Amino acid sequence: MAPSEIIPLTSLSHEKSLRSKFIRDVDDRPKVAYNQFSDDIPVISLAGINESGGKREEVCRKIISACEEWGVFQILDHGVDAKFVDNMNRLAREFFALPAHEKLRFDMSGGKKGGFIVSSHLQGEIVQDWREIVTYFSYPIKARDYSRWPDKPEDWRAVTEAYSEQLMGLGCILLEVLSEGMGLEKDAWAKACLEMDQKVVVNFYPKCPEPSLALGLKRHTDPGTITLLLQDQVGGLQTTRDGGKTWITVQPVEGAFVVNLGDHGHYLSNGRFKNADHQAVVNSNYSRLSVATFQNPAPNATVYPLEIREGEKAMMDEPITFAEMYKRKMNKDLEIAKLKKVAKEKLLLEDELEKAKVEVQVKSCKDLEEILA
């Protein structure tokens, strides 16, 4: 798709009705409002995390409990400088407020790694997400492609480099906690990741004309190790732990990061820690921003449980690389998308056939009336 054919959602947010390509099937539509908040997700202070002894052990216990119960929690007192958080929020708002032609200079279509994209749905999916993103790869440093990083606002590169560095440090601290929580050496998870990758995705969810029919980001689990999410105070992140039967909207907490455990972390723990099942909903009152920092293992890192407790079986048949794990996940998602597309087309065809039958019956009745008249 050429950049000229891409329409930023900000251009569609003032329309009275939602275009069909964003309308979800009934079963996939939001069940809970963006601002119907729950306090079920633990909010954990990391104060004392770098101290040895009781305080660190207490923080670790809370984190491990949250991973076992939800796979998602929020953290405060995390050590990330507030100025970087404020600057990331400012940069994000300024970028998405740019005219469409400025954002589309960084169009990500055509296989480019990094840049701007609308929706980011999988190729082959009928329904699209109601979001815009700008994304870039920040670690390993040697892999950075600054040509795919926005050059507006002007200080994007300097601020996001510093932000990425602080988030990498925070991610490494959390990996140590997860290692210790499994009774392993504190560097066990870091070693399993080899050289850690980091990908930053800045999400913008514009006001939506019919939010009850759409999703900002469809239901999913993250493929990587952990995700650190900075969200504004609007609300829209939702999670479930019962397979989607019930959903809760995560209460935004000023200055906090939401931590999601991903598939890789789920496998390393042999299923002990949940991979957070989540989605993002939208609303017609406010636009929403979030910055997701994905801490992923290197593509050639081995994916396999680090510990198999007595009485348990390995949840994987054999070790595979993270690249292979990711490929299988994407292929599965594509297959599901194809099946949904075929099912939807079948329903549409059946509906058209039924309408045709009714029209034939009506015409037959009219013809009979004319004969008998």
TrEMBL record:
One Gene Ontology biological process: flavonoid biosynthetic process
* Gene3D superfamilies in the cross-refs: B-lactam Antibiotic, Isopenicillin N Synthase, Chain
PROSITE patterns for this protein: FE2OG_OXY
Question: Mind telling me which InterPro entries this protein's record contains?
Answer: DIOX_N (IPR026992), IPNS-like_FE2OG_OXY (IPR044861), IPNS-like_sf (IPR027443), Oxoglu/Fe-dep_dioxygenase_dom (IPR005123), Plant_2OG-oxidoreductases (IPR050295)
Keyword Transmembrane found: no
Please give the start and end residues of each transmembrane region: none
> Could you tell me the keywords of this UniProt record?
Flavonoid biosynthesis, Iron, Metal-binding, Oxidoreductase, Vitamin C
Q: Which residues form the signal peptide?
A: none
Any GO MF annotation of the entry: L-ascorbic acid binding
Please give the pathway this protein is involved in: Secondary metabolite biosynthesis; flavonoid biosynthesis
Q: Which is a Pfam family this sequence falls into?
A: DIOX_N
Q: Which positions fall inside the Fe2OG dioxygenase domain?
A: 193-297
- Cofactor(s) listed in the protein's UniProt record: L-ascorbate
Q: Which family does it belong to?
A: Belongs to the iron/ascorbate-dependent oxidoreductase family.
Note the PANTHER family from the entry: OXOGLUTARATE/IRON-DEPENDENT DIOXYGENASE
The protein's name is Fe2OG dioxygenase domain-containing protein
State the organism named in the record: Castilleja foliolosa
